[in-house]
Amino acid sequence: MKIVAQEQMQEETESTSLCSMFAGNESFGIDTGKIHEVLGRRELERVPMAPAFVAGVVPYRGDVLTTVSFRALLGLPENTEAGCVLVLDDDGGHERFGLMVDAVGGVVTVERRMLEANPCTLDAKCKWLFDGAYKMESGLMIQLDPQKLRPSRLAETGMFRQGSIGESL
Amino acid sequence: MEPAAEKPAPPVAINAAIKAVEEIRQSAPEEEPGSGRRRTASSSGDKTLRIDVEVLNRMMNLVGELVLTRNQMLQSGVEATNFPELARRLDSVTADLRETVMQARMQPVGNLFGKFPRMVRDLARTCGRDVRIEFSGQETGLDKSLLEAIKDPLTHAVRNAVDHGIEPPADRVLAGKPAEGCLRLRAFHQSGSVVIEVADDGAGIAIERVLAKAVERGLVTPEQAKEMTEREVLQLIFLPGFSTASAVTTVSGRGVGMDVVRANVEKVGGSVELESKVGFGTTLRLRVPLTLAIVPALVVRSGGQSFALPQTTLVELVYIPTRDAAQAVERVGASEVYRLRERLLPMIWLDRLLGLKSTSAEHGFYMAVLEAEGCRYGLVIDDLLAPEEIVVKPLSAVLREIGLFSGATVLGNGTLALILDIAAVAARAGVKPVMDEQQEQVIEAVQDEATFLVFEDRMRERTALPLGVVERIESVPLSRIEYANGRPLLQYRGELLQLRDDGRVLDEMEAVATQDDEASATVLICGDPGAKSLRMGIVVRRVLDVSNGTLLEKDAANGEIDLALVKERLTTIFRGFGAEAGKAWREVA
User: For an interface test with B, which of A43, A46, A47, A88 has the most B Cβ atoms less than 10 Å from its Cβ?
Assistant: First the structure.
């Protein structure tokens, strides 16, 4: 329902640009306007006892950025090599955070009408994370909503808390 | 080689900084943008700050310099020959800029005190009290954000003192005190933090009433209440929903109280202490760090990660070699303890507590003896790295929720380290502040017996210092000891320490030391924890022992010298520390 509403609201802008990124075998996209900066591959400092979805912390412009591991959110095993870190901002600027993915592609311009809502068979976790998918020629690109990836929101949902200690052992 | 791809990296950050400062200039004096604190600042209208125009101009000059340096860097690139020079310039400009910004943020505490006389007068009238308010230390500087953070707690404390603390004039006269009550607000620096004291000469806190109330509210059971010490009872006041006011007034008794005061002060890394004597008054002490930004810390490693321990909580460090580990660690049931000077110290393994991979330490391990909020324990770590002045960065809400880390910091080598919250670690591991009270009682019971650090300064003469005044034993290379006017001085953590060298150890060492600069002197860093006197260093030949001793009575035989028997041997007690030393020091200055 929410997605439909968004679609109607932004109908006047026909196309939008997304930054593509990869985790596991799938490709994802986030609105470029919501990405503050792409930091590239970074070694993160792990935080013991943190929820499983927190990959660690990374210094960024005088702040300590809490970074969410997208692989952990998807339930994928941890990667051995360092992932790419994106800096995301929520609209209010209240919480700036990092997102770690396997790799960052580039900017892709997509037409809004190519967006289709989440399939109803999707499980609860993915329903939370995904925000519909763009039907690209090369395959599907799943849109992500940075709002929902905020560490504090993720902690509130309680869906991604499991295995917090198991991961770090 | 792709200089184009490498070059933009530093200027991005510089640009952001330049923009930030220019924003300050444009949007009139405002708080430092981008700092996490602005968001958490109280919602009141005090979001503006008066800055000396001169400071602001200096800031702008430095920003101009920053712009110039950036332009030069962009033009020359990483490969250029003058790059190191540019980097150095950038470094000095950054340091200056940081200092100026910090200076702009420092505000005298007096700004905060200013509104109290009127408030107290109004309050006193509504409550039917006669109150005089006295201030001292208004000029003490404190970071703007901290000033903001303690504003509400302090207001609350002052209200409390007038309404609960000071009795009505008639009661005061009956108790033999002047009808006019006195409220004292004092601010001063103490070992890296600012202390703000709210003291009244009122009725004090009646322990029985607090206990009765706590039992009534179901905060403690009557059985628990019987066993509680005075200090524990006073801690009850900080529990949510606690008020001993028998009637709800407009001023107090609504149950929103000291718990909020404590929570607010602790949020900025401070602490609250309460002292009370029935019939003589109550003193509430808010202790806040000088600035949120920079804290001396010891960086340690455990389980392959770095952690920072604030120096203020560090009492001492114990090295336990692998061969001694089996004997050193003893067990009481399931918990492990270490026998430190005949007292059992609970041990906490940091890697186990945090669920980190244990790394097998071949060289043994270290134990940091820490003390926070009356809890004392040994934290076992794998290795010690350097002591560092760290810049504290707040963590996001999700990570704060873990409750074990008070922040993070970027170390000199560019990696991040988490700052351990010493009190929270103690609480997580179940360490209770009971041990400390037992110790205090023991000390009170045997006044004449005290623990001394025994050392040798003059040849074959044993001298002792009460252990309480020795902060640290440092090994200082001779080259670091400097001389002014014939007196040896040591630069120690940004402070100039005067060195006492009664045994002429330095002269001897200087005579012996030829080319090799490796020789180092042992210096005891001493400070009187009670008095506000300057710290000083004492050069000693070697440190012998720590043990208990008995002070001998002063009589004709020993005259002016204080002697003590330590382990059945005659030992001189080092005096001339404190007032005297301070006087001598001022002469030099």
Answer: A47
How many A-B residue pairs are in contact by the CB < 8 A criterion? 78
The domain covering A2-157 belongs, at the CATH homologous superfamily level, to CheA-289, Domain 4 (2.40.50.180)
Q: pLDDT by residue (tens digit) across A77-123? A: 877 777 888 888 766 656 788 999 888 888 988 888 888 888 888 88
Mean predicted lDDT score pLDDT of chain B: 75
User: Hey, which residues does B84 pair with through a beta bridge?
Assistant: none
Q: In terms of C-beta distances under 8 Å and separation of at least 24 residues, what long-range contacts does A22-25 make, across chains too? A: A22/A101, A22/A102, A22/A103, A22/A104, A22/A105, A23/A70, A23/A71, A23/A74, A23/A76, A23/A101, A23/A102, A24/A71, A24/A74, A24/A76, A24/A102
The pLDDT-based confidence of B256 (bands split at 50, 70, 90) is low
DSSP 8-state class, residue B342 = T
The domain ranges of chain A are: 2-157
Which of B15, B35, B399 would best serve as a mutation to test chain A binding (most A beta carbons within 10 A)? B399
Containing A32, the helix (H) or strand (E) segment is: none
Average pLDDT over residues A59-75: 84
Query: Is pLDDT above 50 for B369?
Result: yes
State the average pLDDT over residues B101-124.
85
**Interface residue A33 vs chain B (CB under 8 A):** no
Question: In chain A, which residue's Cα lies nearest the Cα of B356?
Answer: A169
Beta carbons of A53 and A72 less than 8 angstroms apart: yes
- Among A residues 100-139, those touching chain B with beta carbons less than 8 Å apart: none
- A54 or B21, higher pLDDT: A54
Superfamily of domain B294-438: CheA-289, Domain 4 (2.40.50.180)
- CA angle at B280 for the pair B192 and B185, rounded to the nearest 5°: 40
Q: Which residue from B289, B291, B270, B269 is spatially nearest to B102, judged by alpha carbons? A: B291
Percent residues over pLDDT 90 in chain B: 3
Query: What ipTM was assigned to the predicted interfaces of this complex?
Result: 0.77
Does residue B499 surpass a pLDDT of 80? Answer: yes
Every domain of chain B and the residues it spans: 3-105, 110-289, 294-438, 446-588
Contact residues on chain B for A54, CB-CB shorter than 8 A:
398-399
Subunit contact B418:A47, Cβ cutoff 8 A: yes
Please tell me if residue A41 touches chain B, with a CB cutoff of 8 Å: no
Q: Whole-model pTM?
A: 0.54
How far is A90 from chain B, CA to nearest CA, in Å? 14
B287-314: burial string, b at 16+ Cβ within 10 Å, e else? bbbbbbbbbbbbbbbbbebbbbbbbbbb
Q: For residue B193, what are the β-bridge partners? A: B190, B289
3-state secondary structure of B11: helix
